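Our preliminary data section would be incomplete without showing what the modeling component actually yields. Below, a chain of 118 amino acids is followed by its predicted structure, encoded as tokens that our downstream tools consume directly.
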Amino acid sequence: MEEVRVLADSILPMRWGLVAEAIDQCPQTRIVAHGISPEGIPAAIEQHRPQVVILGSQESLSRGNDFAETLGHLVSVRRVITLFDRGGVAQLREWRQSINTIEELSIESLCAAIRGSH
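Predicted structure:
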């Protein structure tokens, strides 16, 4: 099984504990960067080449088309997981990769989304 590299934006501390625990318990998965500001996400993606990007803040999408364009140019990112409601990802709908929205955060749901079985 291939190792899955995960990058996360600036997720609230209370939620980050659960996210970090889920990543720790999900086999062959590791955090390559977290606590990334919305402005820093494109550079962090280029630097760390994650396969999964977790967005805990809708502010991370404030870059609008720039964010979708950044994802489209980087072949390493296979999935985007959002921890906020589906309405917030409208600008990513045209992005051809997989987007998962987790409305009820749990270790099991997050691990399944990371592995692509959500």
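The mean pLDDT is 79. The chain has four helices and five strands. Preliminary results of this kind motivate Aim 1 of the renewal.
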